[in-house]
Amino acid sequence: MSAALAIEGLEARLGDLRILEGVDLTVPFGEVHALMGPNGSGKSTLCHVLTGKEDYEASGSAKVGGTEILGLPVDERAKVGFFQAFQYPVEVPGVTLDDLLAELAAASSDPAGFWTRAEAASARLGMEPFLSRPINVGLSGGEKKRSEMFQLAVLSPTAAVLDEIDSGLDVDAVREVAAMVESLRSPDLGILVITHYSRILKYMEPDRVHVMVAGKIVESGGPEIADRLEAQGYELP
Amino acid sequence: MERMLESDPDWMRRRRTEAFERFAASSMPSEREELWRYVEIDFDLDEFTLAESPGTAAGSDEVAAAIGPAASIQVVDGFAVDGGSSASGCSVASLRAAAVEQGSRVAGTYERAGIHADDRFAHAHDAFGGDGAFIGIDPGALPAGPVYVDVQTSAAGLASFPAVVIDAGDGSEASVVVHLRSPQDAYTLAVPRIVAAVGADARLSVTVLQEWGYDARSVGHARLVADRDALVRFDEVGLGGRFSRLHLATDLDGRGSEAIIVGAYFGEEHQILDYRYFMRHAGPNTRSDMFLKGAVEDEATSVFTGMIRIEEEGQKTEAFQTNRNLILSKGASAQSVPNLEILANDVKCGHGSTVGPLDAEQRYYLMSRGLSRPRADRLQIRGFFEEALSRMAVAALGPYVRERLNRKFVAAQEAGRV
Predict the structure, then answer these.
(1) Which of A63, B96, B161, B406 sits at 20 to 30 Å (Cα–Cα) from A229?
(2) pLDDT band for position A168 (50/70/90)?
(3) Is any Cβ of chain A less than 8 angstroms from the Cβ of B382?
């Protein structure tokens, strides 16, 4: 059976700058993995290359549930089942979350099922007060992350990459986000949590932890890696 | 071409004779004049005929149904075609009839809120116009719904000079919706005029829904004058016309008066949408906010020049203007020119002006949720205009206007222009 997310030999450059130098990483269905690394190691680039941002030139392979997504337009990747929770969710003034849901429902092959999922996710994550507000406008850091998790739940992807989902949050919000991630765990989904700090991992149980340095995965292992990085930083053993 | 009626009162005949002399002595404005910069006029008045009587009007429209007017009047080819329907405390009548029957009130409104623009079109209006709608809102009156003025040019080749004259009495509270329309492909000229004198403590909103046909030319003038503690709102939605210009002068004369001016316009293909807005703070403690958003595609052009002038007496004044423009195609252009002229020394002023493409980050984010690029862009356009539409006074028009704006954008998408 194919993995939720299978990345092989992924290279990416921004102009002349090589950022990803051959990334190999697999997240099987039902698992939550963490990707850690120092600033500038290429973590956010990996997210955007997977999402399909135009600025990057990418080669290698990235499969979502067995389907190659490299080379597809951004929206096609989402339709195949890829989702990125943004580190900095973009503000869309004048467009409410409800407007976005309505547009997604209209584009969906199963609008009724879409709305059922949306209502359930909204109730579970307490999103009602945010549905009639413009997307990400005037939201606190924690509220933006919650909105991203809500959209993840509604879109029900195959592979989700959560970029710095804990950045800019106080400890209570980190705990809350960690609980949301754990609650999303499902046999139909693989999750990759990207973080600079190990603190969010204290509130979750990642199946594996990967360490990225200078555009490559340099180490993969169990949660104990996060504890070691917390104590020693990113200096390699 | 001069048109007089025996019934017209002397003051109106005199105005018209003097205006005709000014008109005869005037020439077409040129792009070299500051007030006409950025636009080129591709027509002349003598290409059009002045209608002798009103032609056949288009039937009732969705706008009237949407707003549920308390009173209404239809103005076709410059003539009021019915006596107007009035509501309690609010008389709506043919301007020509009102000039006779309520002479001093109409003359007084002209006196307070006359148009002083010195251009060939304004003179032409004074010389050849004279009919339209007069809306008199009695002091303290609160009509139950908006007053609807359906202004139409009926056929190709016609020039019309319709006027909407509003006298909002002290302490009254009313809204007026003016719908401008003409057949889609008819080459027409309209020189509409909207003037409003807003009494002390009164609240008046005027909404102009500009839906001239695609081959129409229009050069409009508007003037709003606010007395003490009055609130005047002016919203314009610019959708139609090959060339549509609006010269708006607002005078905050009374202490504590306020103006809220909102605009949303969308220029497609070869349209030219031209806005020249002037805000004069003559009274102390006055406030104004202009907020216009526009989009242009294909080879359309938009112009917004906003002038805020604060007189020496206008202390403790707050004045803001914002104009944001989206350029949706390479060949489209938007001029946005804010100006401030401040003679008082204790004021708060601000202006913001932007011209640019759709936001790439918003598009990327929306597409990352699985929306196609056309859907993502439609959503972004909707959000862009929402900031203007949500500020407009007559909320009931919102769905209609949103649908029209969306339709224009979708047409441009489907034609592959954006």
Answers:
(1) A63
(2) confident
(3) yes
Cβ contact, residue pair B371, A86, below 8 Å = no
How would residue B86 be classed by pLDDT, with cut points 50, 70 and 90? confident
> What is the SS3 assignment for A39?
coil
Q: How far is CA A57 from the centre of its chain?
A: 20
3-state secondary structure of B133: strand
Q: CA-to-CA distance for B125 and B77, rounded, in angstroms?
A: 13
User: Tokens for B159?
Assistant: 């020039």
Q: Into how many domains does chain B fold? A: 1
Phi-psi region of B316 (alpha: psi -120 to 50; beta: other; left: phi over 0): left
**CA-wise closest residue to B111 among B212, B15, B248:** B15
B187 contacts: CB under 8 Å, gap ≥ 6: B47, B156, B157, B215, B216, B217
Return the axis-axis angle of helices B103-112 and B10-25, rounded to nearest 10°. 40
H helices of B113-229, where?
A: 120-128
Query: Which residue has 């309520």 as its token pair?
Result: B102
User: Could you write out the three-class secondary structure of A158-189?
Assistant: CEEEEECCCCCCCHHHHHHHHHHHHHHCCCCC
Domain extent listing, chain A: 5-88+157-232
- B373 lies in a domain? no
Nearest to B375 among A79, A103, A155 (CB): A103
B405 in any annotated domain: no
Residues pairing with B303 in the sheet: B274, B335
Percent of chain B clearing pLDDT 90 (strictly above): 92
Is B390 a member of any domain? no
CATH of domain A5-88+157-232: 3.40.50.300
Please state the pTM of the whole predicted model: 0.94
The helix-helix angle for A97-107 and B373-389 (nearest 10°) equals 150
Q: Cα(B280)–Cα(B308) distance, rounded to whole angstroms?
A: 6
The radius of gyration of chain B's CA atoms, rounded to the nearest angstrom, is: 21
Tell how many helices (H) and how many strands (E) occur in chain B: 8, 22
With an 8 Å Cβ cutoff, the interface of chain A facing chain B consists of: 51-54, 73-75, 77-79, 83-84, 86, 89-95, 99-100, 103-104, 106-107, 134, 151, 155
Q: For the residues B46-52, what does the mean pLDDT come to?
A: 94
Domain assignment present for residue B335? The answer is yes
- Region B306-316: what's the mean pLDDT? 96
Closest CA to B216 of B333, B73, B42, B29: B42
pLDDT at A227: 87
Tokens of A52: 């399909």
Q: Which domain holds residue B151?
A: 10-359
Provide the token pair at B115. 């148009």
pLDDT of residue B2: 47
Q: Give the separation between CA A150 and CA A177, rounded to whole angstroms.
A: 11
Q: Measured between CB atoms, does B387 come within 8 Å of chain A?
A: yes
Q: Quote the CA–CA distance of A236 and A219 in Å, as a whole number.
A: 9
